C-alpha cells in the first residue's frame, strides 16, 4: 500500500455514516494492523456484496436476489403491510422480531425543500401493491419528523377508504425518564395517553 492508497481509503471511510476523519483513520489503522484477520476478509466481502446486492423488486429491501427473503417467506402474513422510510428502518423492525407481515420501503420521505415528491419515492408502487395484493392493513412506521409526518399524511390521503391505516405509537420509551426526553416526545406521549 502506498501512502496515497491509505489516504484514499481513509477519505472513503470518512464518508460512511457515523465516521468522521479521525474515526476513519483509527479504523483504517486497525484494519492495516489486522490485515489477514480483518482487512482481507472485509475487502473480499465488500467485493462480493458489490457484485450480488440488489434491491427487492417487490418491497425495496436489500438482498442478493430479485425478491428478498421476507417477500419469499410464505409464512409471513400477507394481509399486513408495514411502510418504512428506508431499509435501515425495516431491519430495525426485524430485529425487534414482533412484526410477522410484509414491508414496503419508500426510499425516503416527501420533502418540498429537497424537491422529493411522491414519484421520487415508491408511493405509486405502494398503491399498486394495495390493489394487487390482499392487503387489509397498512402500518405507517415512519419517523416522527416533519417530513415523516407529511409523508404519512399524504399516504393516508391516498389510501383512505381503501385499507385500514394504522401508525406506530409515539411517546415515552420503555425505561425512559421524562427529564431526558425532548418536548416533542413528551407532547406526543401526553396526547396519546390511555386509561390505566
Strand order within the widest beta sheet = 4-3-5-6
Q: Helix-strand pattern, N to C?
A: HHHEEHEHEHEHEH
Assembly state (oligomeric): single chain
Q: Write down the overall geometry.
A: globular
- Beta-strand residue fraction: 5-15%
Helix content: 40-55%
**Average of pLDDT:** 91
Number of helices: 8
How many distinct beta strands?
Answer: 6
Class derived from helix and strand content: alpha/beta
Gyration radius, rounded? 21 Å
Alpha carbon gap, first and last residue: 64 Å
| Uncertain runs | none
Largest sheet: 4 strands, parallel
Question: What labels describe this entry?
Answer:
single chain; 196 residues; alpha/beta; 4-stranded parallel β-sheet; two-stranded antiparallel ribbon; 8 helices; 6 strands; 11% strand
Amino acid at each position: 500500500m502506498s501512502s496515497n492508497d491509505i489516504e484514499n481509503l481513509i477519505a472513503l471511510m470518512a464518508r460512511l455514516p457515523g465516521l468522521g476523519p479521525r474515526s476513519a483513520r483509527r479504523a483504517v489503522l486497525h484494519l492495516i494492523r489486522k490485515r489477514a484477520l480483518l482487512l482481507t476478509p472485509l475487502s473480499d466481502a465488500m467485493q462480493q456484496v458489490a457484485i450480488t446486492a440488489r434491491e427487492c423488486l417487490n418491497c425495496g429491501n436489500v438482498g442478493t436476489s430479485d425478491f428478498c427473503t421476507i417477500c419469499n417467506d410464505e409464512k409471513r402474513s400477507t394481509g399486513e403491510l408495514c411502510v418504512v422510510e428506508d431499509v435501515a428502518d425495516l431491519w430495525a423492525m426485524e430485529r425487534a422480531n414482533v412484526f410477522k407481515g410484509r414491508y414496503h420501503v419508500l426510499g425516503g420521505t416527501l420533502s418540498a425543500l429537497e424537491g422529493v415528491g411522491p414519484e421520487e419515492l415508491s408511493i405509486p408502487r405502494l398503491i399498486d401493491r394495495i390493489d394487487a395484493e390482499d392487503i387489509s392493513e397498512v402500518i405507517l412506521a415512519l419517523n416522527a419528523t416533519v417530513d415523516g409526518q407529511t409523508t404519512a399524511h399524504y399516504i393516508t390521503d391516498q389510501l383512505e377508504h381503501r385499507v385500514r391505516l394504522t401508525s406506530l405509537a409515539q411517546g415515552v420509551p420503555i425505561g425512559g425518564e421524562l427529564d431526558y426526553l425532548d418536548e416533542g416526545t413528551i407532547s406526543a406521549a401526553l396526547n396519546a395517553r390511555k386509561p390505566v
